[in-house]
Write a structure and sequence with these properties.
The complex is a heterodimer of chains A (112) and B (112). With 112 residues, chain A is mostly beta strands. Chain A has no helices and 11 strands. In chain A, the strands form 2 sheets. In chain A, strands 2, 4, 5, 6, 9, 10 and 11 form a 7-stranded mixed beta sheet that branches. In chain A, strands 1-3-8-7 form a 4-stranded antiparallel beta sheet, with no helix packed on it. Chain A starts with a strand and ends with a strand. Chain B is globular. Chain B has one domain: Immunoglobulins (Immunoglobulin-like, Sandwich), CATH 2.60.40.10. In chain B, the strands form 2 sheets. In chain B, strands 2, 4, 5, 9, 10 and 11 form a 6-stranded mixed beta sheet that branches. Chain B has a 5-stranded antiparallel beta sheet with strand order 1-3-8-7-6, with no helix packed on it. The chains are: A mainly beta (112), B mainly beta (112). The interface between A and B is medium-sized, with 22 and 21 residues.
């Protein structure tokens, strides 16, 4: 079974802090994604990556950056957290040969 | 702009009945459409994929239809059970490798 893990289930940070959210998958998938999910807005794509050191902006990249130094790990970085980044963050991965996205359990981030 | 619409109101049905959820889209020519299930506080889980040249797909108690003329997919759960209560998301993918665009989801509540 594919396993996607995220570093934290719940996180509380202060405005202005630098925040790292980590995602690790164990199935050698090429493609990884970061989404945020908010009530009434659904799942929105922040960034994605096709390969190590590759990254592409999604629909809402502002205020975020990403890092993919190893194939299995995709990090989302909030350079200076703001209250409007309070959200549920979901990571997903998919093999380049498949279409199904496998999601992690999510990180619920609260920025105070 | 591309738009995916799912009924924002929760669907309440009695155990044993068939639940039917709708996904409509505009300004989109998807290569395929997927349905995911999401439980509260968890990441989405893949259920079914249907391609643009397929009319219907089944998996156990689940059935998906795809009408590219109407730009609509219907998702059916037959003999519904309280354990089917969750939010169901539809997601569309364009041609070539592309990201998924998700609808906002419809909550299904199955009463005993």
């Amino acid at each position: 079974d594919v396993k996607v893990t995220q570093s934290s289930r719940y996180l509380v940070k202060r405005t202005g802090e630098k925040v790292f959210l980590e995602c690790v998958q164990d199935m050698d998938h090429e493609n990884m994604f970061w989404y945020r999910q908010d009530p009434g807005l659904g799942l929105r794509l922040i960034y994605f990556s096709y390969d190590v050191k590759m990254k592409e902006k999604g629909d809402i990249p502002e205020g975020y950056s990403v890092s993919r130094e190893k194939k299995e790990r995709f990090s989302l970085i909030l350079e200076s957290a703001s209250t409007n980044q309070t959200s549920m963050y979901l990571c997903a991965s998919v093999s380049g040969l498949q279409e199904t996205q496998y999601f992690g359990p999510g990180t619920r981030l609260l920025v105070l | 702009s591309q738009k995916i619409e799912q009924n924002s109101e929760a669907l309440n049905i009695q155990e044993g009945k068939t639940a039917t959820l709708t996904c409509n889209y505009t300004n989109y020519s998807p290569a395929y459409l997927q349905w995911y299930r999401q439980d509260p506080g968890r990441g989405p889980v893949f259920l079914l994929l249907i391609r643009e040249n397929e009319k219907e797909k089944r998996k156990e108690r689940l059935k998906v239809t795809f009408d590219t003329t109407l730009k609509q997919s219907l998702f059916h759960i037959t003999a519904s059970q309280p354990a089917d209560s969750a939010t169901y998301l539809c997601a569309l993918a364009g041609w070539g490798y592309s990201t998924l665009t998700f609808g906002k989801g419809t909550m299904l509540l199955v009463s005993p």
